[in-house]
Amino acid sequence: MYLLIAGFARDAVLHDPDTFLHIRVGEWILTNRQSLFRHLFVHRSWKPMIATDWLSEIILATVF
After folding, report:
1. CB 12 within 8 A of CB 6
2. How confident is the model at residue 20 (pLDDT cuts 50, 70, 90)?
3. What distances in angstroms separate CA 54 from CA 4, 31, 34, one per listed residue?
4. Domain ranges, residue 40
5. Which pLDDT does position 44 carry in this prediction?
6. CA distance 36 to 51
7. How distant is the alpha carbon of residue 52 from its chain centre?
8. Does some domain include residue 8?
């Protein structure tokens, strides 16, 4: 099932350029035990961030 979703499906999860950003944010949340309040991994680090996808990012980081 994973191969179908990740490798063969059109517009698959791993073909999205933001997937690895979400994985990295999930790793950061797991390491620091808090949510992000500003962008750390993009060029707009001064801009405030509301991590609305925090749970899916933790799941992605754990699975990755």
Report:
1. yes
2. confident
3. 25, 13, 10
4. 14-63
5. 66
6. 6
7. 11
8. no
Helices 54-63 and 19-32 meet at what angle, rounded to 10? 90
Does some domain include residue 5? no
Using 50, 70 and 90 to split pLDDT, how confident is the model at 6? Answer: low
pLDDT tens track for 43-53: 766 777 777 88
Domain assignment present for 59 = yes
Domain total in the chain: 1
Compute the half-sphere exposure of residue 64: CA atoms within 13 Å on the CB side of its CA: 18
**Whole-structure pTM value:** 0.68
Where do runs of H (alpha helix) occur along 1-64? Answer: 2-3, 19-32, 54-63
**Token duo for residue 28:** 């950061």
